[in-house]
Design goal:
The chain is 59% helix and 15% strand. By secondary structure, the chain is of the alpha+beta class. It has 2 domains: 91 residues, 2-Layer Sandwich (GMP Synthetase, Chain A, domain 3); 40 residues. It has a 3-stranded mixed sheet. Helix 2 links the parallel strand 2 and strand 3. The protein is elongated.
Length: 137
């Protein structure tokens, strides 16, 4: 058995080519700060699901999706010549929600950590005032 399926190898090539294309060739302001986070291929290599992230999160999704929709033909044509595949897969673009989810989890963890530090400080301060009150009596 091969260590990687053909679909995984092709998806890696598409991700690399797509990232270079966005960085060097596409000058659409809607796609300026977009990052390609992953590519998933169907087993028959007919469809490439391309996942992207934006620096402003979910607020830019509609605008970026419209940018990808308008430049889909150009992207497909350029990538077909670069990849040398017999059949260029259909490109579908999806927003990668994992970064938003990760940011939400990180925010929750920080709030729990700050609450526990505040609680620990309160206990330390209460312990000091109780000790000094007991010593003065």
């Amino acid at each position: 058995m091969k260590p990687f399926a053909r679909s995984e190898r092709v998806s890696g090539q598409i991700q690399k080519a797509m990232s270079e294309l966005l960085h060097k060739s596409i000058h659409d302001p809607r796609l300026e700060m977009v990052t390609i986070t992953g590519v998933r291929m169907t087993p028959d290599l007919k469809i490439a699901k391309i996942y992207f992230a934006t620096p402003n999160g979910a607020s830019d999704v509609k605008r970026v999706s419209e940018g990808f929709k308008s430049s889909r033909g150009y992207i497909k044509r350029i990538m077909a010549s670069q990849l040398g595949l017999r059949y260029m897969p259909d490109l579908q673009f999806y927003y990668d929600k994992s970064f938003d989810y990760g940011a939400k989890i990180e925010k929750l963890l920080k709030s729990v950590q700050s609450e526990s530090l505040t609680l620990a400080d309160t206990r330390i301060n209460d312990g000091r005032t109780n000790n000094t009150a007991a010593q003065t009596e």
